[in-house]
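fold-stage: in
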Amino acid sequence: MRFGFPFPFTAIVGQNRLKLALILNSVNPAIGGVLISGEKGTAKSTAVRGLASATGRKVIEIPLNVTEDRLVGTLDLSEAVNGGERRFEKGILYDADGNFLYVDEINLLGTHIADILTEVISAGENVVRRDGISYSHPCRCIPIGTMNPEEGQLRPQLLDKFGLFVNVQGENDVEARTEIIRRRLEYENATEQFCRKYKAEEQQLAERISEAAERLKKISVTEEILQFIALTADKACCEGNRCEIILTETAKALCAWHCGEIVSENDVSEAAKMVLPHRMRTPQTAEPVSEQENQPDFGEDNSTENAGEEHQTDISQNDTAQENNSANTHEQTETSDGEIPLSAEGIKSAAGKNGGSGKRSKTVSNENSGRYVRSTVPHGKCRDIALIPTLCCAALNQRSRTPPSGMKLAVKSSDFRQKIREKRTGATILFVVDASGSMGAKRRMRAVKSAVRGLLSEAYQKRDRVGVVAFRGDGARTLLSITGSPELARKCMDELPTGGKTPLAAGIAQAYALLRAERIRTPDALQYLILISDGKANIPLHTNDPLGDALTAAEQVNHSGAGAMVLDTENGYIKFGFAKQIAECMGAEYIRLDDVTGSAVEENVRSFVNNE
């Protein structure tokens, strides 16, 4: 935007879906805004500012580094110190009422600020009760967010607050790209003349939007169309009923924009292209469990373990020919199936090293982020002043001071009190699962997949992130990078490979490296490593001793500070107890699993990360 003249909305080349989504929100603000996803340089912010100028609205922008005080408002410091009065200093959200509330790169917005935005957008009102003041004001804005999906995803609860979703891409047509360059150069060289050139089109657009907004009040929706809307949302497997409501409002806006009187199926179909993409879920179908699945495996897996039990007492050092042949010739791929619904009775609960999980876990933040909970005397320079405690402390010392002329309160550095902020943090749960050819490998993988699905089902509430490392054959593989997305987990774990030898040390080492890297990215997150194995290592990592290498890797995890739990899946008459040795070196909670099921694994993990 040059010298107060934004690029005209009608001069933008292409991006018809984006422009239509913004226009529909101007016609019917009840739609709830637009989330614009796409690469940089695709006129996302240009379109928002251009339409705001054409319709007489303002663009109220929220910077990524905004503080809570600046966003919602706080006590007016000048009035408190000079006049001794409690007055509310308005924040950014105050000016957003009736305007576009714009957040560029919204997926990079801090968690605490995103929570505030979610609440305000949902309620249409900003309520502030803090620092001895109580104030509320309407905030019925049109939220507009832009994001680059390569830089991370948006949290589900904030994602659902946006009525429409548009994915934008750069123009591929050479003539269109040439016209974009021509218009931009003309705008840069003669801004005022260029804007005057499109002034008539801008006025026509504003008038048409105003007429459509008036026409919207008379738009009717028949019973058949309501049923069609409900069926459309149902087929898309959308959660909740917000989808149907927004789909109805969008279809009404489209009907009004097209000068119609009754919403048609075409209006609903066109609206669905913008309402459904970020709300669609893939249906999960649970397959019935056959009797054979509930029976022990007597094929390759059983022969592998039995060979080890009958012919050797130290599986970690010697492999039999039978085990080698069985493990190497029977590699399988476990496809995506439903959870095996077996009971988890008798499994004891466990306590983690690092405290509670997810949204229930609170950590003191050393940064100027998070919710202000109390104040303290600063040690050194005060970088985050707690206003009310500071003023109260200064007021108590006024008898021994002479305030400067014209001031009612003298504040000295000794009065300063610093804010203690608290923010909630999630848990990083990394599964390390034995996918080798030992008995029950397929069941272990299916149980982990089911547990991951269960844990991620409420990840949006608890801030939890889950990852999966599987070890088999000659090494370890990251099946699922640490994520909080259920959809990504489903896609990455559709196929679960099993079979081969047991490189236990490689699995633990790779998990340790993942947690160490994740600690750098999210230093406040609680970390948990869940090892699911019988502990019968037979592939070394650094030496010729497979079990010794595994114990060494386990000690690294112990020193990392991450909470750990070992779920021992060893069965049979002879038990070597290798998994228990791993747990001792890892400083982990040890649990023997008799039923290797998704419910059993999930129950143990929940108990482990929830208890302190």
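fold-stage: in (second)
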Amino acid sequence: MGILTFKGDDFYMDGKPYTVLSGAMHYFRIPKEYWYDRLLKLKECGFNTVETYTCWNLHEPSEGVFDFSGNLDIGAYIDTAAELGLNVILRPGPYICAEWEFGGFPAWLLTYKDVPLRCYNETFISLVERYYKELLGIVRPRLASNGGPVIMIQVENEYGSYGDDKEYLRAIAKIYRDNGMDCLYFTSDGPTYTMLSGGTLDEYLCVANFGSGAKSKIGFLRNYRKDQPAMCGEYWCGWFDHWFEKHHVRDYNEIYDDFEDFLRINASVNFYMFHGGTNFGFMNGANYADKYQPTITSYDYSALLTESGDRTEAYYKIREIIGKYFSGVPEITAKDSEKAAYGKVNLTEKAPLFENLDRLSKPISSPAPRFMEDVGQSYGYILYRSTLKGPWDAWSMSLEPVHDRAHLFVNGELKGVYDRTVPLTNESAVKIPLGFGEKAEIDILVENMGRVNYGPKLRDRKGIESVRFGNTNHFGWEIYPLPMNDLSGLSFAPANGEKDIYGPVFLRGELEISGSPKDTFLRLDGFTKGFVTVNGVNIGRYYNPAGPQKTLYVPAPFLKQGKNEIIVFESDFAVAGEIEFLDKPDLG
């Protein structure tokens, strides 16, 4: 592979003028079995480079324990790109935003309560350095300078949107150098003076991120930083969705005009996203401006390839435009995947959560409720259990903070749902009046709906840490961590065809497949909120009627010929235990 350098306004690949035509695809949002297909489609669209973030939270899920296997095999992803003759732009963060849980930071970072994030703090830097030593050891042999495809590496990520600590940025760059990362370094920020001033370093290339107005934004960048190539580090060809929003769909004509403008004015570009993929499991992030807004499971992004990897109308048009300016666009050989409508599946077995607590978790005794992170948990749900003894006044019950959605049960009966996005009022607060000799068993089930991934509220701890009646704190709790990462111990019983199903409950059924499995889309009409596992793989969250997403993508590699186990965890209510597999998605 070639060495990328720059001089004046131009990039050079092995000394010849070069335009970087890149598309963003995150290996951790795509089944490994589909990496080759997606990368081939990128190449056959006329692009020469793939860009990806890396996800610290999955690569170091527990402190000091690293995972680069299976779908996290970043080395294999880079090798697949090299096999296809594609260059690679690497964006290791350590913060990546990406609408990804906690912006890619591992949840255990929050146990370092006195350590600030994303600035020069020796403890924070040392934790980043430990992660980078493992990650960059895999990447280093794959640098262009070592014959591999990695031509550029980003220092931090859109740092000017967060801070202006140059010592911190230089510390990140120093870790790269200390680990032998001999390639072109760059920073990326929004095209404003404050963002560029805060997030750039004079000694490294700076690029700008935006989603419209290519001519004017590139002109702004060239005025800000003269005598360097102009590049859009993220051209937002679509956008992501939050629950309760409409699905974002971009006007393709604007994309075509902007893209051709990049080529007319000799600017390089990275399409964000070329292929978005899926926030499988509990890996969606959240925004927090005026309020908390968690991101949905799909990361379709209105990209050039759909969530399931199909070419869009825009794919062909962008390919046509590239062909006008560059020779040698490959022929199309990659096929879109076959889809199957497997039909309806009855969930014939159930396992109520409260009856299975001891099979899923071991309780931790604590005077006060504790956050997930403080009991060694990163994702999923957490249950707080206590007994309240009378006499007790009918005072309003408050949970602080509610991060993010809590179901309050009294003696096994649901009494209220406390939601982070809905202000508590005296009318909505639960009250538990008790007489002499009376008592109430309290269960509070809290869901982590995704940590904030952007802005000043990154320190987004999950669960609750106090329960009060009026101003009186209630103490004496048993805490059950429920990461929901292993459901094999559940004890199921026949559901007996119940029509009204009250959560929290696990429901199980079997999808029978004859022949080779195909991609499919799961629809859960009649269900309210929860997540789904297919053969033990968490395919993500659903939330009806919040929308916009109505189906969950189930890739063929998650399925098998014969019987497939489907488990739905419903936290609220379902009108019937029936789900349906379709051959088309519905993202709203």
